Amino acid sequence: MELLLESFFRRVRDCPHDLAVESRAEASRLSFGELDARSSEWMRRLDGDPRPLAVAVGNRTAFLEIFLAAWRLGIPAVSMDASGTAAERRGLCRSLGIARLAESPRPVAINDSVKTDVELSTLDVEAAEPPPRTALVKLTSGSTGEPLAACFDAAALRAGIRQIGDGMDIDAGDRVLLALPLSHSYGFDNGLLSLLVLGTPLFLEPSVFPADLVRGLERTQATVLPLAPPLVRSLSAARWPEKTSLRRPLCAGGVLPEASARGFHLASGVPVHNFYGSTETGGICFERDPADPQAPGSVGQPLPGVELLFDGDGRVSVRSRANLIGRWRYPTAVPGVESAAEPSTVRTGDLGQLGADGRLRLTGRVADLLNIGGRKIAAVQVESALRDLGGVRDAAVVGVPDEARGERSIAFVVADGWPLDLRSVPSRLRPRELHRVDRLPYSARGKLDRHALRARALADHADGLVANFGVP
């Protein structure tokens, strides 16, 4: 654990009064020395109990303080969303066998002043232990079902954020503005780990409204802004100043449509960089030159220290020192994330190809392959074809069982005009049904909730409410 924290303690020693973290919701600013002192208070409060601790406090300085304290004590810590109910958090703790929980007494509202203390609870559950050396347990988004847990040791965490820093050219001279959840792997790495290992000051922004994010950039002079596709799209319509300090807007968590990337660049004057990663591996690829004509349609080049492997079906595997070291109470086989024989290699749930330019182009997900009349088609291909149509702002495709064809493709589309003219879409990519919706369901992490869309499609069929017209 010492290697993971050595950079932080060096800053506490050499520049204790330099800003470490600012939280606008809490009207709070902590220097490196003050953050160190706050973590020491939490060390006393944790009382040396070595059992794993779940942390569900939202985007507050307490999140950083508790993790820092736990790691100083050698306690495995679980990064957990605070957006659900207390009953949901306790249910998840019971299913995983986590006996201790740090949580906020109430959800943190946007722009609300946070004055409440964090509650530390001991739960009446049969405690389970993660693999040896575990420092952090990350939970998957649960967008396709129940969240699953991935365990990392200190060496993997340090390697992962070093790979991100080296690949993105981010160091202590940068400043990170974060509106995405710290509890998500994306926010955790580019927020907490970037602060502790790279020394980048962190600014916690409670609002995801475009105007607030732009004002936050002006106020903090942030240079790094982690985003998800919906935020990139909404910021394209925001009013930007002539110039900001922003130089690394990042987009991860899903496919970024070219139109959204182009709109963001036109509005902000800064090109957005695609960033591809997973809960089990951390960062995988980064687009270093988004202005390159070859960049659109790819998720960039592998980060330093990351090697990509492909099986016969094009499934992507990642070999990296930053990969998980094990799983906590996973089922025997987890679709999309089974570990290969070599411990440092993890199979993702993504399909892709590595081009001659060294860029990875994703062609779909294993779990989202549609079996239409015996032909396998990636949902992302259908979605891409729909987004290319005039007036289509977003699209998502899921499959439901069909007795005649194996599966029936159902598309949910956010569009300015209706009906859509599908004549330019290749016949094999035309969805069987179209549903016009006002918006698609995205989680707080920026992930498309396909589980919810699939449930809606199944429910509509059960009720006989098929929402469209004859699509060949």
3D architecture notes:
There is one protein chain. With 472 residues, the chain is α/β, with parallel strands linked by helices. The protein is built from eleven helices and 25 strands. The strands form six sheets. It has a seven-stranded mixed sheet, with helices on both faces. It has a five-stranded mixed sheet with strand order 11-12-13-14-15. Helix 1 crosses helix 6 and helix 8 packs across helix 9. The radius of gyration is 22 Å and the shape is globular. The C terminus is likely disordered.
Briefly summarize what is shown:
28% of the residues lie in helices and 25% in strands.
Observed structural traits:
472 residues; 7-stranded mixed β-sheet; 5-stranded mixed β-sheet; 25 strands
H/I helix tally:
11
Q: What structural class do the secondary elements suggest?
A: alpha/beta
Portion in helices: 25-40%
Residue fraction in strands: 25-35%
Measure the end-to-end span.
Answer: 59 Å
Q: What does the radius of gyration come to?
A: 22 Å
Main beta-sheet annotation: 7 strands, mixed
| Unreliable residue stretches | 107-115, 331-343, 464-472
Mean pLDDT: 86
Strand order of the largest sheet: 6-5-3-4-7-8-18
Count all strands and give the number.
25
Shape: globular
Q: What is the strand and helix layout of this fold?
A:
Layout: H1 2-14, E1 19-23, E2 28-31, H2 32-46, E3 53-56, H3 61-73, E4 77-79, H4 86-96, E5 100-103, E6 119-122, E7 136-139, E8 149-152, H5 154-168, E9 176-178, H6 185-198, E10 202-204, H7 210-220, E11 224-227, H8 229-235, E12 248-251, H9 258-268, E13 273-278, E14 282-286, E15 301-302, E16 307-310, E17 315-319, E18 326-327, E19 345-354, E20 360-365, E21 369-372, E22 375-378, H10 379-387, E23 392-402, E24 406-415, E25 433-436, H11 450-462
